[in-house]
Amino acid sequence: MNELISIELDDCKEKMTRAVQHTESELTKIRAGKATPSMLDGIHVDYYGSATALSQVSNINTTDARTIVIQPWEKNLLSTIEKAIMDSNIGLNPQNDGSVIRLVVPPLTEERRRDLVKKAKEEAEKGRVTVRNIRKEINESIKKLKNDGASEDEIKIGETEVQKLTDSYIVKVDQLAELKEKDIMTV
């Protein structure tokens, strides 16, 4: 196989792996009724004038399956963290006791579970679309290699390999979505 096509295929694998990892991290943010520190990953607080990730200004732990405890390294951050959690719109009400903030994750209703499954399916579809867009981009790059001396057969083989990669990465996204769906629907 043409060396340039091999480089394109390696690039394709790398981009598709990143797309699947991104989808996985987005699915992780969808809460399934269990308290996890990763639920707070997207929350930033104003720390001396700059937006800083919550995990960089406090310890975040789960004491049980329903409670997240946030212990800021500086006591004066309690109200700032509390406000950031409320503004983040994650559906949790912070309880400030003067030294730590507790977040109690309520049990999910059947309707809320269905909404979360729908959201998980949307994220999975975004992941599949991203993988397909990478396929399109790489196939166009491979076609352009004809000018650099790649034969028609090599280009066809390259496109076939890209399709195989696409299929395998879409299966990975589907598996992630299936696992998340099971996780959400498990009471």
List keywords for this structure.
187 residues, alpha+beta, Topoisomerase I, Chain A, domain 4, 6 strands
Quick synopsis:
With 187 residues, the chain is an alpha+beta fold. The chain has helices at residues 3-29, 78-88, 110-144, 152-185, and strands at residues 44-47, 50-53, 58-64, 67-72, 94-96, 101-104. A four-stranded antiparallel beta sheet has the order 3-4-6-5, with helices on one face. Strands 1-2 form a two-stranded antiparallel sheet.
Unreliable stretches: none
Name the average pLDDT.
87
- What name does CATH use for the topology of the largest domain? Topoisomerase I, Chain A, domain 4
Derived from helix and strand composition plus strand pairing, the structural class reads: alpha+beta
Number of domains: 2
Q: In percent, how much strand structure appears in the residues? A: 5-15%
Distance between the termini: 51 Å
